[in-house]
Amino acid sequence: MKVLVVGATGGSGRAAVEALAGRGHEVTAFARRASTVFGGRAGVRAVDGDATVPADVGRAVRGQDAVVVTLGISEHPLRVRLLGSSGTPLEVRSRGTAAVVAAMAEEGVRRLVVQSSYGVGESRDRLPLSSRLVLALLLRPQIADHERQERIVRDSGLAWTLVQPVYLTDGDEPAALSDTGDVAGMRVSRPAVGEVLADLAEAAGDSGRCVAVSGATARAGSPVPGPGPSSRGVGRTGSS
């Protein structure tokens, strides 16, 4: 299976690339400095490009079977809130995803998996009050762009799945998936999220679904749906 990961050099993007390559897929890692990170990595084709430039994205999408989008801003959110983003456009998620959707429609690629963030859309009301305040005061511009990104995905006409992870860490927390927005632990590891993104990229029949990804396991009596038997336990909320 040929899978493109857009935003491949962020934490979740790298994890998705490693998970997919580890399963034997032909992975294209797309980012501004993809060749610096993935050059020479077996099973991975590194493509340097800008996700907000349609021509760059179109070349990367051509010939793929599925696309995983993990776009985000790696700078500290307080700096972004006070001074703006210095290296990545603040609207990179929506602009990049719009370019991906247009290229997929042009190239006839149907399967799209997009990492968003828990706390976007309907899941916002499920957050603790303290987390809602952080989103409102510190992450408002990023959340607004996530909202635009999700609307683009939902209106794309593609076979899409949105993935909303809770606070991302570099630890080893396993993941629980939920179609209802219920979460267990409020932290989940990037490697585990990478496995979830790989699972969903493989789930060609999955479409029109928004999945919350949280840490630990589901609450007793609350089964956690997943895309298939390979689902495994898959900071800043949902940032790459």
TrEMBL record:
Compositional bias of kind Low complexity: 229-240
Boundaries of every NAD(P)-binding domain copy: 7-202
Disordered as annotated region, ranges: 216-240
SUPFAM superfamilies: NAD(P)-binding Rossmann-fold domains
An example molecular function term from Gene Ontology annotations: biliverdin reductase [NAD(P)H] activity
Gene3D superfamilies, per the entry: NAD(P)-binding Rossmann-like Domain
InterPro entries from the UniProt entry: NAD(P)-bd_dom, NAD(P)-bd_dom_sf, Polyketide_Oxido-like
Protein name: NAD(P)H-binding
